[in-house]
Amino acid sequence: MQQAIQAFLLIPKDSDFTIKNIPFGVASKPNGNPFPATIIGDSVINLAKLEELGYFNGPLFSTLGSKVFDSGNLNKFVSLSRPYWKEVRYQIQSLFQCGSQLENNQEALAQIITPVQDTQNHLPITIGEYTDFYSSKNHAFNMGSIIRGPDNAMQPNWYYLPVGYHGRRSSIVIDGTDIRRPWGQVKAPTAEKPSFTKCKRLDYELEIGAVIGGTPNNLGEPIKVNQAEDRVFGFVILNDWSARDVQVWEYVPLGPFGAKNFASTISPWIVSIEALEPFRIQLPEQDPEPFVYLKEKNHTSFDIRLEVLIGTEKSPELEHFTTSNFKYMYWSVNQQIAHHSITGCNIQPGDLFGSGTISGTTKDGRGCLMEYTWNGKEPLVLKSGEQRLFLEDGDVLEMRGYAGEGENRVGFGRCKGKILPALDEAYFQS
Q1: Which residues are annotated as part of the binding site for Mg(2+)?
Q2: In what order do the strands lie in the sheet containing 264-266?
Q3: Nearest to 382 by CA among 331, 322, 340
């Protein structure tokens, strides 16, 4: 049972941002500079102001000797360690609970709090490197069945290691950023040659992103799997947009390239492990037994409900059509970190790890349109009667995620993007 904490700030019903959450992000006021922030209900809290006014005075933070929240990103804070992250989170909860020293200090509150509608979110960190994995068994089986048939769905290596590839950080964008349909080379199954064309099979991928923090491991020294969680600052929702038709032609032999580098969207608030701890769940036993460097004492994930909604130009009201869950992971985040570093790779604070598409056990739990429509054979039929095989221009795709209910709810906010038409072909002729 969670400890009862009552905030003095107004928290709307079903808010993702209860006082049990305390996520971390970056926001700005109109025409203002970005500042590190948290959010409770509809109140955005300026962490730089809290630090400036001396409210972060715990035994760890008070010995640092320099400011942590004085820049337009969270990188300094992320580069600390879990005891510092926990201390700050606890102090924020204490400051904003009923009866605190801050509750009736209107002068301080006026400097610290801004209504959420008067703020804009920004990328919470300057991202270092981006790695995307392929760790949901349901998704891997479905995609393998589409491509190779159910008898050969799983590649031989999949049960032995967390499959992944290195992505591109420069095109990772914040919730609400429009996504332009990409161009690329495509080869139809019956064509003799590829063609240069607009992507016609534009897709999303429902993922959770792990934000890496803490002290980096030295080059040549892998991170031990049972210490890996200390390197996880927190989690975001991640939409790893995909150009499926481009990917089919380009991915041999080195894997995805342009089909996956044009955009990835993340939700603006990083939710901590401490906030999600009440929702930790055991993952199924792995078979075969993992090698020693991947064998965890506790093989766990979190019970995070994940939803996908779509709106179209004809029917702009968002319609929910997919529900999945972070519990549908085969390889855990800790195992991903351990495998990523087993060769001695030095993983840095500010890196981002994508879980890979997370799919449930039923059709309405499939985490991308290629799965949901079984590669275009089973259309998604919307209430308006419109059908979708893949995303069309003007479509708005939104992801949401949360754990718990009511005053114990811990959520991520939204991860949303609108599809813009591809550039005109004349663009490439000048």
Answers
A1: 240, 260, 264
A2: 164-166, 130-133, 352-354, 206-212, 232-239, 264-266, 172-174
A3: 322
d(CA 255, CA 239): 19
Record the pTM: 0.97
Residue 208's DSSP bridge partners are 237
What residues have CB less than 8 Å from 316, skipping those under 6 apart?
396
H or E element that contains 247:
helix 244-250
pLDDT digits (tens, 9 = 90+) for 48-59: 999 999 999 999
Binding-site members for substrate are 134, 148, 247, 251, 357
**How many Cα atoms within 13 Å fall on the side-chain side of residue 285?**
3
The first and second tokens of residue 119, run together, are 């703020």
| DSSP conformational letter for 125 | S
Q: What is the pLDDT of residues 150-198, one digit of tens each?
A: 999 999 999 999 999 999 999 999 999 999 999 999 999 899 999 999 9
Retrieve residue 74's tokens: 């969270």
| C-alpha distance from residue 26 to each of 117, 120, 328, 377 (Å) | 14, 9, 30, 42
For the question of residue 340 being annotated catalytic, the response is no
